[in-house]
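Archive entry. Fields below.
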Amino acid sequence: MTMSKLLELLVAHSGQYVSGEMISRELNVSRTAIWKQIHKLEDQGYEIEASRRLGYKLISVPDKYSLDDLNEQLQTAAFGRSIHLFEQVDSTQNVAQKLAEEGAPEGTLVIAEQQLSGRGRMGRAWMSPKGKGVWMSLIMRPTIPVHFAPQLTLLTAVALCRSLARLTSLPIGIKWPNDLLIDGKKISGILLESTAEDARLRYVIAGVGISVNLASSDYPEEMQERVTSLRIASGERLSREAVIAAFMLEWEQLYTLYQAEGFAPVVTLWEALSVSLNKPARLTTPQGIIDGTPVALDESGAIAVRLEDGNVVLVFSAEMGEPVT
Ligand code: BTN
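PREDICTED_STRUCTURE:
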């Protein structure tokens, strides 16, 4: 059986169930063969509802980026003005890094429908299924010393949070340093990778993953407790082009403000959106565990944590988790 025959049949009955029996008869194939092909279609981004009793129903076809649509919606001067769109990459970070080495200008944007080895912080993998989310990397060339690079991570989190909250009206907050959460569940991840020469940053690759249109079933069961998507949280599919355009505008505006006025305005915005402040937490740092209450964001991008004895320490890098009671 060719996959296109099965797809043709499902499309012809869009929105309705087609019984396994009927598919089997029409295409002259076994139930097992059908089930296998259905899985292949799902891997390609088709959403198909399966019912033991009723058969299969086509819910949606894969979403594809439209560069025309994206360019029409962009309102920025530089961010996203040169776009490199790929069907499939290992990681948009690698592609952007190569472009940066070749001299691509600030604002160059790499997006992919799918990443085969998307990476997250702390050496973790980042799931990036085809057509379901925004998997992107932006080249930045800030003229700041290396030790200020963490400020850009927080700036990116603020810009993303503001743009998504505006677009969806969902209650989105920032967990230090840069996870965006809805009701405690993660909807996006930010990974900044910088290349420096002496104490000067040559370029920064800002990688952002946004879970836009993933359904619960797109996540492995063990992740479902911890993650969500804009679609799951709002009940609606969103245009990925609209998400990127809104984010680029907010991001460029905040970056311009940062270059003119420094980090202070970003700190104020970050603190207002934070869900991590003034709540006891356990921070697992490379140097060990710290139990305390985060109270403020420091100018450097570190978080100030009040310990039980009243002392305040600065934490630069950690995983923030629930307090141990
Ligand atoms: C995290 O929360 O751990 C950060 C995840 C960052 C994922 C994005 S998706 C686009 C870009 N390419 C990657 O390989 N990673 C980042």
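CURATOR_NOTE: The two ends are 58 Å apart (CA to CA).
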